[in-house]
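A further point concerns the way the authors explain their paired sequence and structure data. Each protein is reduced to its one-letter sequence and a matching series of backbone shape codes. An entry of this sort, consisting of the sequence and the corresponding backbone structure tokens, reads as follows:
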Amino acid sequence: MEQYRIEPGRAYPIGTTVEDTGVNFAIFSANAEKIELCVFDEHGHKELTRFVLPQCEHDIWHGFLKGAKAGLVYGYRVYGAYSPEYGHRFNHHKLLLDPYAKALTGNFSWSDRHFAYDVNDPRKDLSFDMRDNADVMFKAVVLDPFAPLIPKKPIAWKNTVIYEGHVKGLTELNQKVPKELRGSFLGLSHPSMIAHYRAMGITTIELLPVQQFISEQFLIDKKLSNYWGYNSLSFFVPHNQYLNNNQIHDFQRMVDELHQTGFEVLIDVVYNHTCEGNWLGPTLSFKGIDNHSYYRLNPNDPRYYINDTGCGNTLNISHPRVLQMVMDSLRYWVQIMGVDGFRFDLATILGREVHGFDKSNGFLDAILQDPVLNGVKVIAEPWDIGPGGYQLGGFPSPWSEWNDRYRDTIRRYWRGDKGLLPEFARRIHGSSDIFEHDGRQPYASINFLCSHDGNTLHDLVSYEDRHNEANGENNRDGHSDNLSNNHGVEGETSDKAVLALRLRQIKNMLTTLMLSQGVPMILAGDELGRTQKGNNNAYCQDNELNWLSWDDKDLYAEELKLFVASLSQLRDQFSMLAHDRFIHKGDKKSLVDITWFHQSGFSMQKEHWHSHHATTLGYLIKEKSPSGPTLLSLFHAGHEPIEFQLPDIDAIDHWQVIVDTTANTLQDEIRKIPAERKITMAPFSTIVLLNDGL
């Protein structure tokens, strides 16, 4: 086209760069033979022209398109060998998405034309397909540079309370949010949502994946979708279905509005694999640009992928250009989009080298030294399915980690498993046995009861079996053992005794969570009693099974909201519940003391800890100052009521009951009891006592 002229341009920065007279394009490929820049009309419907990128240096192909402006719609066609047996899958008939794209247009729809091979050929991926896929493929849009968001002063880890939620699920059914904003980024920062976060004592919203993803073909064929979003296509683009009128600025605006009201935003990121799947997967971006560089291939047969993710492929983050892309993406989300940190899906993969996981590997070291990223919150999901994949406690400072040992221990204790008191105490203590090394602190442990992956808290006390029939896999998917207890009835019931016990168990676990050292994480909706009807793998359910109900008349909803709010106030009021160092008996530098008590009123002895049948524990935490407060938490996970003799503590003549999981949170009266008396504990109950030192 006459208004455009291609010139050599420059190799850096990678991606597109808008200048006064045109746009610079730069893309990495170590094994390509030629790359064409394809220009489309503003809607992405018609390809207008192509330009060969005229120069390649340091494996960066580049060209300056004189006359181009922001808003230009484009894609790439990459030429090279199609030799899957050698790890090369170039097919210039396939329009490919720029890995550095900042905005997209058009719609993606599944077609056999997305595959570089003929899907009907018996040779499968050893065949070659010459059909064009441009009409069913996203196109990239050249974006004007955004003004960076002013960084928010970080909330200290010890004061952090995380709320894990889904962009759409949080607001889709919230009648207080305008209809046009429901299910979008802007819905999350609506005043009604901010009021809810504030009432619940949340400091930090952690969002399931927001980078552009697509649903797998097999889900679309079953009229389902990848609701969770762990199927990344583009690492720089906010997911288009969460935008209003495709306005990329919506994400920035949401973050800014949340920052102004005191909240942090973390995003869940998926750099371990992409949506291109295994050797039989589609060719949409990385696979067609340079398969051999972007993915980890079987060294003995590079036709096939190393699959430490369970998702078909593994991103080759050990390659310097792939690592550069990931780091550039992370910095973009911090500096331009304003996020305060990241939760890394299957993070063990990101720490793998040829010999296995290494906490001094290139990526983890890069995060540590990066002047932008070393000041944000970074959270690892510390496992993958590869050899040596379980690495809880294995990440270096300043990483925090999802602590599934905490989750499992608390679940087992409250369902009534025996012999768990030592383990239960260690988890309340901040899991020092796992994290207290190399200078790591209690906030290394992200304590959680439930997450997006598994049962909700309501379902944890209502179902013992998985009920995943709606997923179309004959109920074979998801975990078979949820460490749950239905308390006598599987699923929904009208039995008042069962319902009362279930509510009490939810309260018991929430109380334990908020009293534990470390960082509490609440699954969105658990404070409302949300149910998934026993589905413990609801990744493909974009419907009311996953969307939060905001009806206060729902079972447990009003009571639990008040209860969670009271626990958050408790944690905020007493700083001794959230320390940035581990507390040990006899530690002269510590400002608090911790003591564990037997139900007899005496401190726990060796025989008490190792009693197989013991299900009762007292946890006392006290400020050392003479007038400082003392909290005594009594946990009882037995089937029968017990008498707990309150310990004899100098200068304490009375206690105030501030939490009782058997009581209605709505009651206003303050219960005071003498210090020397015995207190009766109902089966499966928690009581928290306060002496404020006054």
Notes: The CA atoms of residues 112 and 120 lie 9 Å apart. The first helix runs from residue 167 to 171. The two ends are 82 Å apart (CA to CA). The mean pLDDT is 95.
